[in-house]
Specification:
mainly alpha; 12 helices; about 70% helix; globular
Length: about 325
């Protein structure tokens, strides 16, 4: 069974559903739990050194060359915007409608403002934008955004496996499970693609749901193309985070960071403000330096999201005008 990209003349946005109280509270509960754990680790480390908590944390910032740090982070943020927009543009053109890259860039940038709370919410904003601006049915865009998140998982898992295998003897043993998870994910993908391509389970009601439309259309090369297009972001991230960690006094090689960073990015994708899970992961990776790792994770992830949100403000007026007329 095959599908063609339909006309965009008939809008069909999904009806909005009010989030349940626990769904609204969950991101903040996760954030509170992360910071409670960080506080306990930092307070214990400060006590051992006979220092106050604030003074202990301040020491982690004293010797950082902020000029060099900004020289790393600002180009990385702009590179991320350009490539991330390219990936979104490609997926929408494959599965939904022919849209110019110049029309995707403003809403992708503006959606970073919503990423301050949750990256998935920002993808929902893209679906609303294209529904209002071009009449693309909301469920179709939602399906494409789900496809993107699915590919992002496999991209991170692939790079994490490469990093762990390259640094097998040096990396912490807890990461040795990652290649096995990747292998299980690969087996799952084979059956997943066979199911949605109609090779097995043809006619099943689950397969025909609107939210899975992009997966019914997708060929194997679509998944591979997204992973390839996102590869420069992973490589750039490894370089930037490795060099930035050294500015904070850390000693880590590029291969070791390749094993760590995709796992950190998994944490950054968890719901909750300030990327609290990602900050927690840095402390778990380097338990002997909780102060440095908390400071490093906090400034890295929060500068990234706030800088991108600031860039998004530059495009917000145009995106709002095109969305709401």
């Amino acid at each position: 069974m095959s599908e063609s990209v339909p006309s965009t003349t008939t809008p069909s946005a999904p009806a909005g559903k009010k989030a349940k109280p626990w769904q609204r509270l969950l991101p903040f509960l996760i954030t509170a739990a992360c910071f409670a754990y960080l506080y306990s680790r930092l307070n214990s480390a400060a006590t051992r050194e006979g220092s106050g908590l604030v003074a202990y944390l301040a020491k982690s910032f004293e010797n950082v060359s902020w000029t060099h740090w900004l020289a790393l982070m600002i180009p990385y943020c702009f590179l991320y915007l350009l490539i991330d927009s390219l990936v979104v543009w490609a997926v929408i053109n494959w599965f939904n409608a022919k849209i110019r890259y110049a029309d995707i860039l403003p809403i992708r940038a503006s959606a970073y403002i919503l990423s301050l709370v949750n990256e998935q919410v920002s993808k929902g904003a893209i679906a609303l934008y294209l529904n209002r601006r071009d009449g693309v049915p909301g469920w179709e865009i939602g399906s494409s955004m789900l496809f993107l998140m699915f590919c992002e998982y496999y991209s991170l898992m692939l790079w994490a496996s490469i990093g762990v295998i390259l640094r097998w003897s040096q990396i912490q043993e807890v990461f040795h499970v990652i290649p096995w998870i990747a292998l299980g994910s690969l087996v799952f993908f084979v059956f997943f693609h066979l199911f949605f391509s109609g090779k097995i389970g043809s006619g099943t009601a689950l397969r025909e749901r609107q939210i899975f439309r992009a997966f019914r259309l997708a060929k194997v090369w679509h998944y591979a193309a997204v992973i390839v297009m996102r590869a420069p972001l992973v490589i750039a991230g490894v370089i930037v985070y490795t060099l930035a960690l050294r500015l904070f006094g850390g000693t880590v090689g590029f291969g070791e960071m390749l094993g760590y960073l995709p796992v950190i990015f998994f944490g950054a994708a968890m719901p909750g403000p300030m990327h609290s899970v990602a900050i927690l992961f840095w402390v778990l990776l380097y338990p002997d330096r909780p102060g440095q790792m908390t400071a490093f994770g906090f400034v890295m992830h929060n500068f990234f999201i706030f800088f991108n949100a600031g860039v998004g403000l530059l495009f917000l007026r145009r995106a709002s005008r095109e969305m709401f007329g």
